[in-house]
Amino acid sequence: MRVSDILKVKGNALFTVTPDTPLSDAINVMAAHDIGSLVVMEYGDLVGMLTFREIILTLRENGGGVGTTTIRKVMDDHPLTCTPETDVNEIRRMMLEHHVRYLPVMENRALMGVISFYDVAKAVVEEQGFENRMLKAYIRDWPEEQGQQEQQNVR
């Protein structure tokens, strides 16, 4: 399974902000849409990611407030990215190794979407469920004669 497969199922809702957006506005967007990250774009280029991790760190550093802080001051300005062709197992490794929950999906310099740890976990569970159903159907439909013959060969 590839990242492109996850994006097909996930849909194409994508939320972006600019680096000069007030952090308080970004928090409102994230809360209103129940999302954990925003892609930071400037002049059509990916320049960073804002996740709830950066927001929490900012709140801690500022005694619980964000004041007039802009995204530029708190964003991850070197986010890890992937491509639509990246294998899901590679994504899992990347997310665990780098302790990231959100990955922008880039094709050349174009932003194709964002996948989350949740998206990856859901896709893996669904794929395993499908494989389990196929295996059970295969076993259930196993020809009786062939099954008996193979059991005798095992003995």
Keywords:
single chain, 155 residues, alpha+beta, CBS-domain, three-stranded mixed β-sheet, two-stranded antiparallel sheet, 7 helices, 51% helix
How would you summarize what this structure contains?
The protein is α+β, with helices and mostly antiparallel strands and 155 residues long. 51% of the residues lie in helices and 18% in strands. It has helices at 3-10, 23-33, 52-61, 71-74, 88-98, 117-140, 144-154; strands at 16-17, 37-42, 45-51, 102-107, 110-116.
> What is the H level of CATH, i.e. the homologous superfamily?
CBS-domain
Fraction of residues in H or I helices? 40-55%
Per the CATH scheme, the topology name is CBS-domain
Supply the number of structural domains: 1
Specify the structural class.
alpha+beta
Q: Note the main sheet.
A: 3 strands, mixed
Q: pLDDT average, as an integer?
A: 88
Strand content is 15-25%
Structure in words:
- The protein is of the alpha+beta class and 155 residues long.
- The protein has one domain: CBS-domain.
- It has helices spanning 3-10, 23-33, 52-61, 71-74, 88-98, 117-140, 144-154; strands at 16-17, 37-42, 45-51, 102-107, 110-116.
- A 3-stranded mixed beta sheet has the order 1-2-3.
- The longest helix is centred in the C-terminal third of the chain and has 24 residues, at 117-140.
- It is elongated.
- The two termini are 38 Å apart.
Topology:
Elements: H1 3-10, E1 16-17, H2 23-33, E2 37-42, E3 45-51, H3 52-61, H4 71-74, H5 88-98, E4 102-107, E5 110-116, H6 117-140, H7 144-154
Parallel strand pairs: 1-2
Antiparallel strand pairs: 2-3, 4-5
